[in-house]
Known about the structure:
Layout: H1 8-31, E1 46-52, H2 59-63, H3 76-87, E2 92-102, E3 105-114, E4 120-124, H4 131-138, H5 148-164, E5 171-174, H6 176-182, E6 184-190, E7 196-203, H7 210-215, H8 233-249, E8 256-263, E9 269-277, E10 283-290, H9 297-303, H10 314-329, E11 337-344, E12 350-358, E13 364-371, H11 378-385, H12 395-407, E14 417-422, E15 428-434, E16 441-450, E17 454-466, H13 475-479, E18 489-496, E19 501-510, E20 518-530, E21 535-550, E22 553-567, H14 575-578, E23 582-596, E24 607-622, E25 626-641, E26 647-658, E27 688-689, E28 692-693, E29 698-711, E30 715-727, E31 736-746, E32 754-764, E33 774-778
Parallel strand pairs: 1-3, 4-6, 7-9, 10-12, 13-15
Antiparallel strand pairs: 2-3, 5-6, 8-9, 11-12, 14-15, 16-17, 17-18, 18-19, 19-20, 20-21, 21-22, 22-23, 23-24, 24-25, 25-26, 26-29, 27-28, 29-30, 30-31, 31-32, 32-33
Amino acid sequence: MRRPLATKPERRAILGGMVLAALWASWAASAGEVPAGAAPDAGRRIKRLEIRGNDRVSEHRILGQMRLREESTYTATAADEDLKRIYALGEFDNVVIRPRDEADGLVLVVELTERPVLKGLEFVGARRFSEDDLAKTIGVTVGGLIDRHKVFTGARAIEQKYRDKGHYFVSVTLDEERLATSQVARYTIVEGPRVRVRKVEFVGNHSVTAGELQGKMTTRPWFPLFVAGTFDEEQLDRDVVAVRNYYVDQGFLDVRVQRELEFSADKTRLVVRMVIEEGVRYKVRSVALAGIERFSRPLLQKQMRLGAGTYYTAEGARRDTELIHDTYGEVGYIEALVHPVVDFAEAPGEVDVTFQVEEGRQVRIGRIRIEGNRLTQDKIIRRELRFFPEEPINTLLVERARKRLEGLAVFKPQSVEITTLAGPDPEVRDILVRVEETETSNLILGAGVSSNSGVLGNISLVQRNFDLADWPKSNDEFWRGESFRGAGQYLGLILEPGTELQRYRLDFREPRLADSTVGLSSSTFFFRRDRDTYREQRVGENVGLSKELWETFSVFANFRIEGIDITNLDADVPKDLKDVKGSSALTSIELGVAKDTTDSLFFPTEGYRASASVEQAGAMGGDYTFTKFVLDGRRYWTVTRDVLDRRSILAFHGRLGFIPNEAPIFERFYAGGTGTMRGFEFRGVGPREGSTPIGGDFVALAAAEYQFPIFEKNLSGVLFFDTGTVERRITLTTWRAAVGFGIRFTVPFFGPVPFSFDFGFPISKGDDDETEIFSFSIGTAF
């Protein structure tokens, strides 16, 4: 039977293959070489090594990187590994290893192209930066081997360096021919003018103010000293996305945002124009809850932000998601999943929102394990948890416990972790509390000078995790700092000698006396101050007791006994001072209530603190009898939170005080300085007789402060408004006010305590008030 003839395409393919095979055989025969990895050479012994192209690098150094030797067995894998090791020397631009078949056996050829040495580095047209700066930007040095990647990408790196400083029109070229022939890298730089953003305009923003949108952008117009106005095109593109996302978050789901650039004639000034097509703002047509069986759907919907007829916002959807998730988490459904789904309705400008819920199962607490507390006693941590084995896991209680542990200031910030551990029973989870202890003892030595206090020294020895019962078992244990620690008590010895002011104080606090809900505090003090017209000296003891009635509410009682000595009076001092001249005794009992819902002791961002107290002097004897009423409150809100979890915080503080009967001059109300009214001297606000502040029986103070992050999490800025008055009686004669700015920062060595520097400027004051622009403090009061 005859075989069918090949088709025309098949004949062409066969002919082409025969030609290629002939060419390959001819080339192989003439060269006598086979590429690395070719099967015929695998497993053969190497008779000789030939190394070519190495003028600067010794043959010995190259062989030191190779495993293949004469008489060793050749394999493609071994050759590839040797190639990589030789190339890793960084001395060669190219490395080729290939076997060659000769009459006496297999020859291994190593062909090298050495990397040339950079003989010169030139920058033509550079005025903005020095040659050293530009060389560091590229990352190459004269005399070193040429890294072609760095050299060729160096032009782009230099351009970016210029653009970071506002030279938007910069161009940089590399002379490649000079590099190849002379090994000199010459960059020609056309810097162009420095561009500053002079204005940011918004067009088409009918529903959102320009101020709101500018707050979402990093690109900002130039402002002397404060804003450089540097133009970064990549950053502007990110700003366009940020503005669009903000609109989408507000329910403008069809918004379009574009940017336009308008340069001045000399290219030095730029107007950035954000062109916005808002589109319709979507409203919610319906809200549905799917998958919910454990709770009443109508009850949940009453608590939700989104509802039929409301505008859709991403924040509303997020809050409602958290509400549903937290509702389940409070009763042990820690695996509950909530997914908001947004569907466009048939009618334009409307959406249907469905919260898809996967409830999971209820989970109880198994064991509670604690890790990381090398010195801190377990019970100090456990008493702050306030949840117990066999209870359903309550995620809200877990988060509150974490914040309470952070607030103890004995662990590193944000180091407290409370997680669950799966076990054999899917309905039981162990709780793992992991902490990382921080240095709780601080010795601070300092000195300063001010117009209020003269020269003042400071020696502070503080232990925030003290244990009065943990006496050292040896001298070494004491000097290693491993005694008197671990019970969560506070001990502070403060010594402040000075020319005009001297303060010495020993403080002790036990937050949980005998592991109860009763707290004990004690302060023994000595105080002496040379005021303008007299000297005041006080020595005494304060003892305080507090009782926590429930988590955020407590009652307290403070007992005070003091000896007061008023001496060195000027001849023309007011009668109020002459009446208290000499030595006297003062005792008092203060009773009060306090409520604290803030999320942190030192850095509150949410919640409030409020207290009301009445103090009766003379209750335990002494030379003075009077009553003092005080109301104090602080409220905190988180306004924004960035991707680094840094928060901008708005805070308000109010204080009212009243003494209905006659009090000695040293017990009256005063204002001025940090903690009361910035922009005024200490005790610079209120009634005076001559040059002597005599205080008042009524005080009303209010303050507003906006704090925002500046650098990382350690430096923040503040804007503030302080206002109020101090009067002899309940009346308003002169109302004071001041505005200002300041900074807040923390030093990790000193623990989680903020340092405050403020500049205040009075805008309303009394005729006799004393002003002071700069003030500072250590602590949280404002």
